[in-house]
Amino acid sequence: MNLTLHVWRQKDARTKGQFVKYGAPDISDDMSFLEMLDVVNERLVLEGEEPIAFDHDCREGICGTCGVVINGRAHGPRDRTTVCQLHMRSFGDGDEIWIEPWRAKAFPVIKDLVVDRTAFDRLIAAGGFVSVRTGSPQDANAILIPKVDADLAMDAAACIGCGACVAACPNASAMLFTSAKVSQLALLPQGKPEREMRVKKMIARMDFEGFGNCTNHGECTVVCPKAVSQENIARLNREYLRSTVVADRRLEA
Amino acid sequence: MELNAKIPSGPIDQKWTKHKFDMKLVNPANKRKYSVIMVGSGLAGASGAASLAELGYNVKCFCYQDSPRRAHSIAAQGGINAAKNYQNDGDSVFRLFYDTVKGGDFRSREANVHRLAEVSGNIIDQCVAQGVPFAREYGGLLDNRSFGGAQVSRTFYARGQTGQQLLLGAYQALEKQIGLGQVEMYSRHEMLDVIVIDGMARGIVVRDMVSGELQVHMADAVILSTGGYGNVFFLATYAKGANGTAAWRAYKKGAAFANPCFTQIHPTCIPVSGEYQSKLTLMSESLRNDGRIWVPKAVGDKRAPGDIPEDERDYYLERIYPSFGNLAPRDVSSRAAKRVVDEGRGVGPTEVGVYLDFADAINRLGEDKIRERYGNLFEMYERITDENPYKVPMRIFPATHYTMGGLWVDYNLESTVPGLFVAGEANFSDHGANRLGASALMQGLADGYFVLPYTMGNYLGSNKFEPVQEDHPEVIQVVTGVEERIRSLLALEGSRTVMDIHRELGQIMWEYCGMARNKEGLETALQKIPALREEFWENAIVPGTFSELNQSLEYAGRVADFLEIGELMCRDALTREESCGAHLREEHQSEEGEAVRDDENFSHVAAWEYTGEDSEPKRHIEPLEFEYVALATRSYK
Predict the structure, then answer these.
(1) Nearest chain A Cα to B47, which residue?
(2) Is the pLDDT score of B242 beyond 60?
(3) Is A30 on the interface with B (CB under 8 A)?
């Protein structure tokens, strides 16, 4: 098939960007979206032009590195799919495709389609962990966890940290990402001792990084490649409310 | 160069305990005076950096990805082994040790493997305590599954995303230390050289991949947890950015490179579909618990799989290896697939593939049960191939997946350069000539959580460290070298893209140094690779500039190193005149095509020493002794 691409090109964070038009002829159905970009880039290099910068790594939908907005939708038209797992059979001959980076105040553009998502790392550093010294735990089977709780925790833990939820949200909120981690650890007994502190600190950090608030649009869940559910946001809200009423002493630790 | 493995004395099950007592300690107040550099943030890197920081050392951690959570450990699907014997099926530390030594075809160090088996249980305890959501039974206990090369169920898993969950556990521990200021994290920084002063590794040179700036970071010790070099094959299951540069730079600074030819070809990957293909995707080995592998009995049988009756199918693994069946080890399964394809019985449009069929399991257990076990893998398969594996059998074929070879390390994980430690896939130590499934995660976390925290203390406590300034002549020389190399890459204005050259290198490696090797082929490769390298340095194109985000430059630097690593792999494969594990020399195989070892002449580790750009590397030997697992021909029949 033959396609026309409109790709966001931006030299660096300080320079203004713009859409640039490229032809993409002879594209095979079986190519992934990123392989299509590889082909376009190879040609740009041979023509002496600078190739399009985009983030990618595992190319099997798990590392969370890739992510662009395709025709207005984060990760493109298919549900539960990262860009690297999106194949060109989802497009038709003659299509025009608009490709742009995640857009959010907390995710500044570094170059072209590459953005800085280190705010997510700082959110985890604020409290997205269980404090457990290496070597100190008891036998793994000493903690019994009902299968249903383990499964719910796993549903939340499946988040790959790609940032599509932020890109899709009209408020550029990181609620889905944050709630996935808060939920996973609140559902498990291991996460209980730090649960109040965790939710308070992570929410404070979210605001500090410049992410917006959640107003229940639900766009985040729709574009999430791992279908992380909005139920987690509800659980986050409950956890937050709960943390405001439990004994203060536990928060002062 | 001396290869002293420093294996502690005493019975094998007491070596590690004794060694832990004999090693020097650093008292808590002094730990904060020491600094350690960790390169890489995968399972070994993240767990090691977090554990060292927790002890009180000052740690700097580097990764090329935009976040430490992205390291390719994240893509491991199936599981992690541990000798817990939770299934009451006869597992033990000794059995895990035995299976791993045998699975590695007697080319690993017994003492290291035993330690790995000993700490395997602690890893599961640690990860569960961190909140890793492993699969559970209804009673709340942990669930297990089976993996290749074992007759017990000792594999712990979190759906098809075990690597992701284990890595996120280690990453969260690391982020906690970053938040506390005990670890300084440098993401989007690529290590380009090691600084060795007075014979000790004291720092690294990195490039800030956003600004292009070269930076010097000094410390008392350096750890490389930088993964494997399997992308030398171009098409592999590795992340696109995975590379051998850190290990290769260390090799050129005096770290011996051990068994470079031992590369694992994983039997169950989605076959290649076209020339544009950029990577291969693994389908977890766990699928072989329920999937049956077959090809048509007749050569050139073009019928759809459903039209081929039972008695015209060849379930070749079950036929040849009745006691392990579809769970034969990876090297054995891969070669069997290659043989049936070479016979002309391959399936699919390219005829380079075999079927992995779930029809029996679906009939026996129902589609829902299969969906629960492997749902995400089936979905991934459908996405890539546009075929529904619940209805038609999957098509699979082997692909490069892991490198057992890597930088040589002693029992303490220290390379031949004092103060330069190597952990995880980047070292060579535990898997011999073939790694068993679900053992990579185990090794990465064993090294990071349970080995480095002890051996690093011993190193720091046993040595004196003079402060080194950044204007030290050696530092300036290393930085100048790195800068010159980048400038010469940027000066390439030829007519071939770097990816095109990389693809050709991959074809050479797959053809001559892949699943089967022979003298003539390896000698051909040793002609072709230097010629291709010359072409790279004359005719490649590297666009862009120094001081910006330049993905073309990053890639060119990695490919330039692959063009040298590939040559060493072929040289090693040529010298190892035997077959063992994943290394099959066609001159040394049984009539049935199984590997025939030569224990008299090759029961050793081959470690290569760099001797200069214009001279051949020197081969050194570390003899391997097998006291506890008797040398025997591996049989899975």
Answers:
(1) A134
(2) yes
(3) yes
The CA distance from A153 to A188, in Å, is: 7
Distance CA A231, CA A155 (A): 11
- A249 falls in which pLDDT band (50, 70, 90)? low
Return the residue matching tokens 């996460």.
A191
What's the pLDDT tens digit per position in A53-112?
Answer: 999 999 999 999 999 999 999 999 999 999 999 999 999 999 999 999 999 999 999 999
Mean pLDDT of B289-308: 95
Asked whether this complex has an ipTM greater than 0.95, the answer is: yes
How does pLDDT run across A6-41, given as a tens digit for each residue? Answer: 999 999 999 999 999 999 999 999 999 999 999 999
Chain B residues whose CB is inside 8 A of the A188 CB are 131, 133
CA-nearest residue to A111 within chain B is B549
What is the overall mean pLDDT for chain B? 96
Residues 224-243 of A with CB under 8 A from B: none
Q: How far apart are CA A91 and CA B338, in angstroms?
A: 35
* B635/B637 Cα distance (integer angstroms): 6
Q: Do B66 and A118 touch (CB under 8 A)?
A: yes
- Nearest Cα of chain B lies from the Cα of A43 at a distance, in angstroms, of 9
Please list the residues that pair with B619 across neighbouring strands: B608
Contact (Cβ atoms closer than 8 angstroms) between residue A2 and residue A29? no
B614: which 2 tokens? 């214009």
Closest CA to A177 of A54, A71, A74, A53: A74
Q: State residue A197's pLDDT score.
A: 93
- Supply the DSSP string of B569-617, one letter for each residue: HHHHHHH--S-BTTB-BTTSB-TTS-B---HHHH-EEEEEE---TTSPP
Q: Where are the alpha helices (DSSP H) in chain A?
A: 33-46, 118-127, 147-157, 164-168, 175-187, 195-208, 219-223, 231-245, 248-252
- Interface check for A37 against chain B (CB to CB < 8 A): the answer is no
Per-residue pLDDT tens over the stretch B419-431:
999 999 999 989 9
* Chain B CB contacts of A56 below 8 Å: 240
CA distance B499 to chain A (A): 8
Tell whether the model's pLDDT for residue B148 goes beyond 90: no
Position B563, amino acid: L
Q: Residues 6 or more apart from B379 whose CB is under 8 A from it?
A: A80
Query: Would the CB atoms of A134 and B125 count as touching at under 8 Å?
Result: no
Token reading at A102: 């995640």
Min CA distance, B502 vs chain A (Å)? Answer: 13
Contact B65 A63 (CB under 8 A): yes
Q: What is the mean pLDDT of residues B337-344?
A: 94
Mention every residue, 6+ apart, whose C-beta is less than 8 A from residue B63: B39, B40, B41, B45, B70, B71, B186, B187, B188, B189
Cβ burial of A118 (10 Å; 0-12, 13-18, 19+) is middle
Closest-CA residue to B542 (of B566, B565, B558) = B558
* Cβ-based contacts of B547 with chain A (< 8 Å): none
Q: Given CB atoms, is A79 within the 8 Å cutoff of chain B?
A: no
Compute the distance between CA of residue B563 and CA of residue B533 in angstroms, rounded to an integer.
Answer: 6
Could you tell me whether strands A18-24 and B292-296 are parallel, antiparallel, or unpaired per DSSP bridges? unpaired
Q: Which of residues 185 through 224 in chain A touch B, CB cutoff 8 A?
A: 185, 188, 190-191
Q: Which residue of B has its CA nearest to A133?
A: B54
Q: pLDDT value at position B552?
A: 98
CA–CA separation, B18 and B23 (whole Å): 9
CB B565 within 8 A of CB B231: no
The catalytic residue positions of B are 330
Nearest CA in chain B to A116: B66
Confidence of residue B27 (pLDDT cuts 50, 70, 90): very high
